[in-house]
Design brief:
The chain has helices spanning 116-135, 140-158, 172-188, 195-202, 206-215, 221-239, 244-250, 256-267, 271-276, 295-310; strands at residues 20-33, 38-45, 47-52, 55-60, 64-67, 73-76, 83-89, 102-105, 160-163, 288-291. The protein is α+β, with helices and mostly antiparallel strands and 311 residues long. It folds into two domains: 20-166 and 290-310, Jelly Rolls (Sandwich); 172-277, Arc Repressor Mutant, subunit A, CATH 1.10.10.60. Helix 1 (116-135) runs antiparallel to helix 2 (140-158) and helix 3 packs across helix 6 (221-239). The longest helix has 20 residues, at 116-135.
Length: 311
């Protein structure tokens, strides 16, 4: 039986005193998901591949990518010991000025891109927010709010964007179809899932299923199946002494060899190495996969970005 327990919609639990949520993570992978908040992804060290609107983009150290509100996205193919700052905020952060929502284009690897001065401005604000939340000096909440507003102002000043009218925003039906597919897979990932049966059970055509998966940034439902299988395996590796063979079978893999292959593709580690390494504290299960990292190193990297921005 599955040990996973997470919602398909990643709810952002923001602190009451701040209009944002920010954390530094060493990410392993994430399943395709969406939420109502904007999410800024800043790669501090190493690299990852992000997926949004059916397109993949490789990011390296110093790159910034924005996932817009209600946009299905995922992250995978991380380099070992990557380090990323994730900033999430809602449209209410600028509601005093604008009563609507916007779709921004922030991708420092894009051909359209962001000029170097603006990119440094974004890096500086993100790094300072991260440092403030690590150090938490007296009155840090005011400085965090100030940096967030400065960041948002720079978005309007330096990025291409468009108003999200109700008729042009992502439809609830599309998101509902996506959630239905994920819920179906989550309940049955340990079984053999046949696409014909899934389409019948969900009352959707094969063409519609492929369209939903493509918009979610994945070409095959099997990638979502493998995500949940690996997440289940990770929990068993962390919390039980069960054999690799048992964990492989309990997580739905056809063989131990396929388990090793898929597990390493998603985590950059073998199951044995994953079991032996220190585990991240308070790491969510089900949507995001996080690894442990040195807080001291994270603070050092953030200070380096702040120092570069001042030059």
């Amino acid at each position: 039986m599955s040990r996973l327990s997470a919602s398909e919609l990643e709810y952002i639990d923001r602190a009451a005193m701040l209009p944002l949520k920010c954390r530094v993570v060493c990410i392993e992978n994430s399943s395709p998901h969406w939420h109502y908040e904007y999410e800024v992804f800043f790669v501090l060290r190493g690299g990852v591949t992000v997926h949004a609107e059916g397109k993949a983009q490789q990011l390296g150290a110093g790159d910034i990518f924005l996932f817009n509100a209600r946009e299905i996205h995922s992250i995978n193919l991380p380099t070992p010991e990557n380090l990323c700052l994730v900033l999430q905020f809602g449209a209410d952060a600028f509601a005093d000025v604008y009563k609507t929502t916007f779709k921004f284009e922030l991708n420092t690897r894009s051909e359209i891109g962001v000029d170097s001065a603006a990119a440094e401005l974004f890096r500086r604000d993100l790094a300072h927010i991260g440092l403030l939340l690590f150090d938490r000096p007296n009155g840090y909440q005011f400085f965090v709010k100030s940096r967030l507003l400065n960041f948002i102002g720079a978005m309007f000043q330096n990025l291409r964007y468009q108003v999200e009218h109700a008729e042009s925003s992502p439809s609830d039906n599309r998101l509902e179809d996506f959630d239905a597919v994920k819920r179906y897979i989550k309940k049955r990932f340990a079984e053999e899932i046949r696409i014909e049966q899934m389409c019948r059970d969900l009352a959707i055509s094969r063409a519609k299923l492929y369209r939903v998966l493509k918009e979610a940034g994945t070409e095959s439902y099997k990638s979502i199946v493998n995500y949940y299988r690996v997440e289940n395996a990770k929990e068993l590796l962390r919390n039980t002494n069960s054999s690799i063979s048992y964990i492989s079978q309990a997580s739905g893999f056809e063989s131990v060899s396929s388990f090793y292959r898929v597990f390493k593709e998603l985590t950059s580690l073998s199951p044995n190495s994953y079991r032996e390494r220190p585990q991240a504290k308070d790491a969510p299960v089900g949507v995001q996969g996080y690894a442990s990292y040195s807080v001291q190193q994270a603070v050092s990297v953030l200070r380096d970005y702040c120092a570069v921005a001042k030059k």
